[in-house]
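I had to read the description of the data format several times before I understood it. For illustration, here is how one protein appears when written out as sequence plus structure tokens:
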Amino acid sequence: MKVIEVSIVLIIVLMIFGFVLTSAQHQTEKAITAVEINNMEKLTSEVIDNLINNPGVPDNWYEKDKGTPGLAIINEEGQVIPNSVSYAKLIELGVNYDEMIYEKSFSSKIHTSMELRPYESSISSVKIGEWEEGDSIFSISRLVKCDFYKSYVLKDFQSEGKCNKHHSQKENSCNYFKIFKGNLKKSDYYLLIDDNEKYDLSYIVDTTRVVKDKYWQTADSNVIYLNDEIEFYDDTSAVVFVHLDEPHPNALIVSVPKFFEEDFLEYDYFRTNDCELIITAWY
């Protein structure tokens, strides 16, 4: 009987020892996983902060497909705008995402995807990167200023402009740009109006050399094609004036390449937007 009792005790002890050992292994694995995820989150946070605060090295890294990527916008004065994302750079980053992000930034250890999500805008979010999601998924986001096609803006009616008519600046807005005949072969010119301003605005397009009177036209569309309204007369160039009958409306004059995608001809695509940049990461 004693032998049987001893055997039973030994079995129970072994079972308890096995349970404790298994539990310890699980706890160790959890601790290791927690450390790995913490390191993963720290690295991802460093990567996203670097991307939105640096334009990249060299500045045109996206044209050469080499160097260190950066998404920050450089303004007209050559200054880097912190916490910003250039849409053009983001799209180029998506073309060579594996090499630039997976291999360089994460040493081929962490898979990621990025999404640029505009706030209070008609613009759809933009996604780049990998989409075969694995284990240990988490996301890190940053609030940023983002441009889309703002580089094509010639004049913004939110700013003061010059006028060749005797308009009251309290009741009207004017802006102008110079154009050569050859420009019309390569580019299309538009007056873009925010949806909320459509139908409420009237406009006149004329030049410095006015041969006949121009009359106010109702803006019955938020996309007004200007090429056909530009008169050169006997000259090879013209200074084109666009007059609006409201002070500082949400309206822009833009010049885009021929065959520019019509779906992107919206006011919101050509202004600075508040956006959220999100990086999702996994093993």
Q: What stands out?
A: The chain has five helices and 17 strands. The longest strand covers residues 138-147.
